[in-house]
DNA sequence: CGGCATCCCGTTGGATACTG
DNA sequence: CAGTATCCAACGGGATGCCG
């Protein structure tokens, strides 16, 4: 616990602040969070619509993911007390900055995924 | 397998290419990979030195992590057949580009971690 | 020194059923 | 519609011991 030193990362991936990054990635780098944030990037969505768009996520995981994002201040949850009930999820400003910070990695992934798979192929044999 | 559509992400977190991102994060966003890449960012390191620097990683996890990074073409493994043996790990050019792509997220984490923890505090009570 | 093999337990997360 | 609750299988990952 005495190891929560996080100076601002000016140097390339400063080792001391890496623990902060690890924490964030533990929260953001799981199987579903990125997908959810990505779908919410373009605007608010209802629970079911979100589940449909993400594709493959279980109710349990969607709920847990959204709850954590809400607690972290990444998304807002808006309940319309109608019948049937309606709940909208939307990125907060913090969420938007996260999405922006994710972009370079997204581009890197798109650009290098095939190269990585080719590497795996070669190494695998 | 018919869903490997990855157009270049020009739009903010393009949903269709998000699966590529998810794959990459599944590979890169685990508990240790970022830390290892971060430590290797400044130059090559030996196995034990790497384990010491990362701190808290078990031999098993360090070995598995390095193996996957090697297979993916992110790091190189160089064996010096001396006695006792010596093995150096180093980022490849691809690894360097990954590190660069990780920087914005690293900065976001450093900048917003406290805010997130404050949010959790409020929401938790 | 730099690993690999094995055991084992805690967590993750899917499937299913139920509720306001 | 938008969840909650429970069960259970799969996986991650630490500890330990052995080897070239």
From TrEMBL, chains A, B:
Keywords: DNA-binding, Transcription, Transcription regulation. PROSITE patterns: HTH_HXLR. It comes from the Bacteria. InterPro entries: HTH_HxlR (IPR002577), WH-like_DNA-bd_sf (IPR036388), WH_DNA-bd_sf (IPR036390). Pfam families: HxlR. SUPFAM superfamilies: Winged helix' DNA-binding domain. Residues 18-117 form the HTH hxlR-type domain. This is Winged helix-turn-helix transcriptional regulator.
